[in-house]
Design goal:
Number of helices: 6
Order of helices and strands: EEHEEHEHEEEHEEEHEEEEEH
Radius of gyration: 26 Å
Low-confidence stretches: 125-147, 173-189
Mean pLDDT: 80
Length: 279
């Protein structure tokens, strides 16, 4: 028999959201298919060829003992699958279609909390950052991300509640600053990504404490400590979320508003958030 892996998509169940694939089992006379697959590739070039890109589903050939090999699709001069393969597949019958889970992308707790499975901690704009060498395994290298839409004072003032998501960051080993072959540039950063831990909602009183901190004009002090835990807080009005505030629960204890605009998170607000979010 032949098994064709047709669709990549997502599957939701009690554990969360998985990446998945649809496996289609095909049966019938496989001789025409085997003959078509045995054809060699044509020499490429010489056109004319269409400008579209062909996407073909992986095809496995399975024997009576359950052993399988991944089939190669022979290509024509335009690097497209030869028509005889498509014709042979069309003659087979679909015996079974099975949806298979592959990787758990978003845990159930994150889905139920309305949180992303991972989130990048913002960076302080204009500050030179270390760039890991090409063989480094820590961090995600990229240009400074564009800041989100500004979060006006009026939105914060009218906030009724905030949804929060807590993330933890795995410590880099060795520390990025100590890695060999690193360079420092302005405007290019090592993004530190956090993994979802838990989520929930702050009531109006506790949300107001965060609002007051975000509206303050405190300037973030010079600090080199790296955070290992942070929260994203989304103020809402009439059920609509209107922006994101990010706060560090340790490290330098920074509060990020509008992407990279930073201030110091007051100690009493940090203690409240640590208690409310189960840190």
């Amino acid at each position: 028999m032949a098994v064709r892996c047709d669709q990549m998509g997502s599957i939701d169940d009690a554990e969360g959201r998985w990446s998945g694939v649809t496996a289609v089992t095909l049966t019938g006379d496989l001789k025409p298919l085997l003959a078509a697959l045995a054809e060699p590739n044509d020499a490429t070039g010489g056109g004319p060829c269409t400008a579209d890109m062909e996407i073909v589903s992986p095809l496995w050939l399975v024997d009576a003992t359950g052993q399988a090999i991944l089939a190669h699709y022979p290509r024509n001069k335009c690097a497209k699958t030869k028509p005889a393969v498509h014709d042979a597949l069309a003659e087979l019958s679909v015996e079974e279609t099975t949806v298979l889970k592959r990787t758990l992308d978003v845990p159930r707790a994150a889905l139920d909390s309305g949180c992303a499975a991972t989130r990048a901690l913002p960076v302080k704009q204009g500050t030179p950052q270390s760039i890991p060498s090409a063989d480094s395994s820590s961090g995600v290298i990229g240009a400074l991300p564009a800041p989100p839409a500004p979060l006006p004072d009026s939105v914060l003032t009218d906030t009724v509640e905030m949804r929060w998501c807590r993330y933890t960051i795995q410590a880099a080993t060795p520390e990025v600053a100590e890695q060999e072959g690193t360079e420092t540039f302005t405007g290019v950063v090592t993004l530190r990504s956090g993994r979802f831990v838990t989520g929930g909602t702050l009531d109006e009183a506790n949300s107001q404490m965060v609002v007051d901190a975000a509206l303050s004009t405190s300037v973030a002090p010079s600090c080199d400590e790296s955070a290992t835990m942070f929260l994203t807080l989304s103020p809402s009005q009439d059920g609509h979320e209107l922006g994101t505030i990010t706060v560090e629960l340790d490290g330098c204890g920074l509060l990020y508003r509008n992407g990279s605009e930073t201030g110091t998170l007051p100690a009493d607000v940090r203690d409240m958030l640590a208690t409310q979010t189960g840190t």
